[in-house]
Amino acid sequence: MICGVILILFAPFVAPLLGEDFAESAQVLIWLSPILLIAGLQYLAADSLTGAGFQRSRSFVQVAAAAVNVGLNLYWIPRYSWQGAIWATLTSELFKLVALWLIVGIVYRRMAR
What we know:
mainly alpha
């Protein structure tokens, strides 16, 4: 979370540091900053699954999320350029987050019985 805030705070300095060719990079950094929080929450669920012996489920979700990302990129990038790529990435990362935690919940309920 702290890194996301740092990215947002320092995004306006990208163009002055790297040149005007990178002027839109500040917006990209801001839009992609939630991925840091999403990834942190994903690692908790993913590593729990691996530690409990459910690596196969974790891998399935990761491959499915990659397929979602590719599909959305093929559809959204031609229509929305870099914004489409960002939305595809955020959507696939949120898909992965929700799927991993759903599996953790299912595994927990099964083991609790």
